[in-house]
Amino acid sequence: MIYSLFRPALFALDPERAHDLAFAALDAVSKAGVARIAAPTLPADPVSVMGLAFPNRVGLAAGLDKNAAHLAGLATLGFGFLEAGTVTPRPQPGNPRPRMFRLPRADALINRMGFNNDGVARFVANVRASGYRGVLGCNIGKNADTPASRAADDYLACLEAVAPVASYVTINVSSPNTKGLRDLQSESALDALLTKIVAARDRHAQKLGRALPLAVKIAPDLADDAVRAIARVLVTRRVDAAIATNTTIARDAVATLPHGHEAGGLSGRPVFARSNEVLGVLTRALDGALPVIGVGGVFSGDDARAKIASGAALVQLYTGLIYRGPGLVAECVKALAR
Predict the structure, then answer these.
(1) How does pLDDT run across 7-49, given as a tens digit for each residue?
(2) Distance set, CA 319 to CA 130, 247, 270, 298 (Å)
(3) Which residue from 142, 213, 293, 315 lies 20 to 30 Å from 81 (Cα-Cα)?
(4) Structural domain of residue 215, as residue ranges?
């Protein structure tokens, strides 16, 4: 209710400026202790996925807190887990502005951020300083100027850095905003990449004395056969989970809207149906071998339930949170607990 009063003012601002202001406010009320006092009372809905204990099945998707700089505030909103990033080995500014666009008539966003972040060293320092003790996913990627032939080096560098602070690590090979990144989703390229990453993960896990689950995030624009091929690779290479899906490059649903033809990844309601289709294809192909986290277009408790019905073990929010506000988290948690 309160968010609905502030949303018009936020939506009058540039999306990135609004993002910064919203987080500044969340950080301030969190630091003052107000956010925790006002935190919603949620039903217990514990679940074990990837060998990790989640207090509920609703998480924050990667992309909103790229630098893990706002974990303390986000932890007060009722999430069962947080995923931060995407982070790269070296800091990078991302693509030129403007690079994020609202499409309110479609409850959608288009972004071409390009993995803008402060680098993995700052990311890890932020996690350590946050005091956050919940389930944390660290979403990792490659720098834009790293050639595809050396992509594995970037993922391995990030993995080594985040391993001590991560509950699980997500391999992002599906953003449309880093040139050539989605090519890593091909069966042969993904197999080669994961062979190296899983071997490194096993070494880090042995050193840490605990499991370090790996997830792979895929695109909604893949043909069904390509999704099934990815499933084969994930099982063969002993990955622990998949995340379906990232943003889409399709524009059918927004082609006539202002900003509808902007380059980048489209998120929000228009991706919901296709994301669920990919989720279904993937879960059927995996046949219970590993769990899938469903993300894409969740704007209500019923949407969250639809993700679970399509095969998801957990659900993540991003664009719905921007349009609906923090109350969406509690709504989804309560819907899934029922």
Answers:
(1) 999 999 999 999 999 999 999 988 887 766 666 789 999 999 9
(2) 24, 10, 11, 8
(3) 142
(4) 2-337
